[in-house]
Amino acid sequence: IFDLDDAVWMPYASPTYGAALSRLLKAPGKTHFTLAAATRVIAGNDYIADYARRFNEHTDVIPTVVDTQQFCPRPHATNELPVLGWIGTHSSLQYLRAIVPALQRLARERAFVVRVVGGELEASGVNVENLPWSLAREVSDFQSLDIGLYPLVEDGWSVGKSGFKAVQYMACGVPVVASPVGVTTEMIRDGDNGFLAVDEDAWVDRLRRLVDDAELRRRLGARGRDEAVARWSVAAHAPRFVEVVRSAMEAA
Question: Quick one: pLDDT at residue 135?
Fold first, then answer.
């Protein structure tokens, strides 16, 4: 069974390892051989499934999910200042850096904290709090946020992402602002269960509205939580996953 939720066949120059080492470590050319050899393929979204079916017709779409009993809204504690948060790795920090100009513009108008977990962000004029990532603290880090940041730069790799960070924010009742790239356009309805921001002006506008309005944060966060439970929870998709595994065993 080959389970993939990224466009791993796309050449991708990691900002950590560089283009040459990325090709060596990731070896994107092997993907179609693995797809063809698999008994069953699980794809995290339709974009990946469309590619996978070129090599294996036994492909199912099962989205990336979280345990929504574990990833759940925090107790009713409040932050002194609104906390805009991003949780990821040093290799994906490039996407957060892309919205630094928007954060700097907003910081000239409003007081807030940007909490970065898993990376080191520098943004002059912005109140940034950099923290190391910890598995033991992961859920509480998500719960500590008032607004979740999910910026992306549109390319073949980003279009193939399965929106895991957005799912984690939403499951914790944290309203998310995301770039309209790939699966986020299916997950997030702008102004209903989160916000989509297409450019710098839109990022400033959406974040300003959320910083200023605690009730808006609560409302979008609650709708996002409902969507996560219904569409991206372990409970919602575990039976189908078990069915795929069972059918692969029977075929073998």
Answer: 95
